[in-house]
Amino acid sequence: MEKMMDRCGLFGMFDNNGFHTSHLIYYGLFSMQHRGMEAAGICVNDNQGNFSYVKDEGLVTEVFDEMKLEKLQGHAGIGHILRYDGSDARENAQPIVIRYTSGHMAVALNGGLTNIEEIRHDLELKGSVFQTMEAAEVISVLISRARNNYPTIEEAIASIMPMLKGGYAMLVMTPRKVIGVRDPQGIRPLVLGREDHSWFLSSETCAFDELNVDYVRDIQPGEIVVINAEGPHSIQGMPAQPIRACIYEYIYYSHPASVFGGQEVYKARYNMGCHLAKEAPADADAVVWVPDSGLAAAAGYADTLGIPMVDAFVKNKYYGNNLVKPEGILFDRKIHMKLSVIKSQVKDKNIVVVDDSMVRGTTAQTLVELLRHAGAKSVHLRIASATISHPCYYGASMPEEKKLIFHEQGVDAVCKMTGADSLAFLSSEGMVAACPDAAGGFCMACFNGDYPTK
Ligand code: SF4
Binding positions for Mg(2+) (predicted)? Predict the structure, then answer.
């Protein structure tokens, strides 16, 4: 894994229009497939409060077919896509569905909780038994235990929120409600949308765009939005703290067409390229972008310096999860199946390559090798974010700390390792300045170690 991956995407809806709920959730999840490719799941609620669900490992298109979607009949539902970097994706697929004294409940989570092991251990000591390793299951047990003490499910959720330390967005479905919850610092995104009398919750606005759903607003930090047959209403689950939205959503995770906290992701990436050009100009004949997330930053970089941007890398469209990864002797020969280079675009030229971020440095090394092999005269690497030197505890799937290239090494050593002629990164100030429309501050902990929570 070179890029950090966000662990999940959420999409839920409460339908009052007679839409095909499961189909819309399916398309919503499909439009956010970039947020997780290990597993997918949809749970729907028929009008009687009975829940049915399908979840399994694989892409959205692999888990569902027309027959399965047709069987998922209901007026409300929540869906989830999982990025998991460890144990069994099938076992940990979400939504988690339980039955307790108040009926069915389904829970889907995006994010990471720093104290989830302690909570789980405490519940186990009290007799709870868990079937998955997912925090969503722990949360479902917490909510079900709290529910008896509160008149409404939202009040029960509010009562357990102070226990949850970390960055998260969550969907909860009960027989009469679909509920969205966002952590009190707004680290993970969650947005509300509407079409006529139907209401939607999603990790990203790009899902609304694809379904012709109108974006209404971001769920606020600490807010619990409750959607039922009458429409949405909110309670404040926890007092909102100063917002610390994940800045890596703008750098890499989110779809470029999405708007997060008022800031369009594409524009943020373009601005990052502009700031990078001012901070670290390179004397080059052409700017080369790295598919796909490096495109906007490379455009900003090229426009600012007046250097032509060329298409040099071509991504193999069919490279994916199912490819047998080269190992052993094949890996040693550095067979790179994902990208190929158009030689005429780079031969005998001084090239500046713009990518969005660097985690382990292995991709940068391969890019430089590919360009040199194609005849580039010189290769300068420019990265449109700061150096990543700390782990993320809020749901980004990333290598352990010691595998982060900047955990122990400096820029000069990494430049040498990649084989580039020069290497430079955008400053933290440049990243923030690139997001002028974002409402509030940012989590930048993986860049600077300043974690929003303990
Ligand atoms: S640590 Fe990095 S990836 Fe994790 S939430 Fe903060 S900015 Fe995002």
Answer: 293, 355-356
